[in-house]
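quick one
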Amino acid sequence: MKKVNYLDKFLLKVFILFVFFGSLYANDHPYIIVLGTAQDGGSPHAACKKDCCEELWDNRFLHKKVSSIAIVNPKDKKFWIIDATPDFPEQLDFLEKKTGFSLAGIFITHAHMGHYTGLLHLGREVMGSKNVPVFVMKKMKKFIESNGPWSQLVELKNIALKELSNEQFISLSTNLYIKPILVPHRDEFSETVGYQIKSKKSLIFIPDIDKWSKWSYDIRDVVQKNDYNLLDGTFYNINELPGRDMSKIPHPFIVETMELIEKDKNKVFFIHLNHTNPALKQNSLEHKNILKKGFNITKFGQKFHL
Ligand SMILES: [Zn+2]
Ligand SMILES: [Zn+2]
Ligand SMILES: [Zn+2]
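structure w/ zinc ion:
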């Protein structure tokens, strides 16, 4: 009887040590955290008097920040933000408080207002940052260097532009990598990229793309090969913007993406939802329908362990 007791105690100690070191290991591992889920203009949207936004203006708790994610590496006590949005001040504050770590760099997808204008906060008028690495593609780099007010960030060395090459991984730490992937989009000022972030697991982030059929990759293969896929969910379907020509602002409708992807639906998380997208509201039929079909909608503060 006594022997069994000792054995029990021994096993319990082993178990506790296992859980303790296991959690240390898990805490040390990089992860992605969602900083915003809405399209460039956020939700509510400037000047929108429609049902989608009207009731939101007086209730700040229901506001949704602009689409952005961060890569957090607890081992080095650093994080990187993908896309500097108009909500950058709050998103940075949230991350600093949540992690206790500091900003190691910013990756930009493209030159539409929801994705890079937050860079202005790094300038002389606000943070007065020193050489914050900003990772961009070639045209985006040229755009920032040659247009005010962005060029001043470069001249005053608030930011240090780092040029990325399509589909070339760069290393952020041991066993933590990121690469840009070109996607078709309305490229007025810059090219547009999505990103793949890889450690033990891999995550795809494509907030903006015209249509899956215009891309060189088959989105079904991409979803299959990656553990988490944060994909453009701007519009739910074609009826969303009455009176506007939706072919001028192409995105894969959520209903199209759901039709296309038959396997691994649980690895898809819609992000970058327009203020008009009914799925932004948790109690909507459209929101429930997405979940019922086995897909997901990203949430603010959601973590993906890499
Ligand atoms: Zn966008
Ligand atoms: Zn609205
Ligand atoms: Zn865009």
